């Protein structure tokens, strides 16, 4: 994996290590590579720093075996507050019990000692990118879903009907599919999938649109290409207004949110999701 140094400079880290020599050496390198580094010598200090800076932290890198509070115990406490922030362990341990426990805590990855900085920074970059994409998708779908769920009663009825509504991300993905007009595009802007709501609004079936460019249902092809390039450049969702044409030749104007997808192991966009606000 090619490491993007500019992207590393956008990352803020909490680094926890009880060995003074290792911490000092690694910290001196981290401070040159990343935007900001907070360091602690044990889990208790790590928890305190997390509570103080949680709004700006992108990732936590911690040793596993530490006095006062282990890295595993610290991760458990942190995930009670922020269960999706990536945690990467630096450890000499590779036993099965540790790995199973880490997986149950949604631990993102681990790197064995002695540390290889290139390997560690690559792991950090991958983990943070995945975390930011997930967080951006969650915010996007939640904001759009809230346009439909105007009362607490609507929300409660949906929660009772579906078991997986305990998990917020899955809940809003469900809402996005069933209540929000959306289109999945490949990396060239060709239509792969449309949501039920998109089909209801525009009167197209997936058979009619599959493998066709999104520009086939809008007259402003240049604007779509511009927004795709902008989403890739920023690596985040971009919003814009655009008119699309229905199967019966009506022109509808919606607010759109275009979200780049990174579903492959490489760092390149694999496609896009286009979400539409239901308020014109």
TrEMBL record:
Signal peptide: none annotated. It comes from the Bacteria. InterPro entries: CheY-like_superfamily, Sig_transdc_resp-reg_receiver, ST_Response_Regulator. Residues 141-175 form a coiled coil. The modification 4-aspartylphosphate is found at residue 63. Gene3D superfamilies: 3.40.50.2300. It holds the Pfam family Response_reg. Residues 12-128 form the Response regulatory domain. Keywords: Coiled coil, Phosphoprotein. GO terms for biological process: phosphorelay signal transduction system. This is Response regulatory domain-containing protein. It comes from Malaciobacter mytili LMG 24559.
């Amino acid at each position: 994996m090619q490491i993007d140094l500019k992207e590393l400079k956008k990352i803020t880290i909490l680094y926890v290590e009880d060995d003074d020599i290792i911490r000092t050496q690694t910290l001196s390198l981290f401070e040159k590579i990343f935007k900001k580094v907070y360091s602690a010598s044990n889990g208790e200090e790590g928890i305190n720093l997390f509570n103080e800076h949680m709004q700006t932290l992108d990732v936590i890198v911690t040793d596993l075996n530490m006095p006062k509070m282990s890295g595993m115990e610290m991760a458990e406490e942190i995930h009670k507050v922020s269960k999706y922030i990536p945690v990467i362990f630096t450890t000499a341990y590779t036993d099965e019990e540790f790995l199973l426990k880490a997986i149950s805590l949604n631990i993102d990855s681990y790197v064995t000692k002695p540390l290889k900085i290139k390997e560690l920074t690559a792991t950090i970059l991958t983990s943070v990118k995945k975390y930011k994409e997930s967080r951006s998708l969650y915010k996007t779908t939640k904001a759009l879903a809230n346009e439909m769920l105007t009362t607490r009663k609507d929300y409660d009825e949906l929660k009772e009907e579906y078991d997986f509504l305990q998990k917020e991300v899955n809940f809003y993905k469900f809402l996005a599919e069933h209540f929000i007009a959306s289109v999945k595009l490949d990396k060239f802007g060709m239509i792969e999938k449309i949501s039920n709501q998109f089909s209801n609004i525009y009167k197209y079936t997936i058979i009619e649109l599959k493998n066709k460019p999104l520009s086939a249902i809008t007259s402003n092809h240049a604007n779509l290409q511009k927004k795709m390039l902008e989403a890739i450049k920023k690596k985040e969702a971009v919003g814009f207004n655009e008119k699309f044409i229905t199967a019966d030749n009506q022109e509808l104007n919606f607010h759109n949110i275009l979200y780049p997808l990174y579903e492959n192991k490489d760092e390149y966009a694999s496609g896009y999701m286009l979400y539409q606000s239901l308020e014109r």
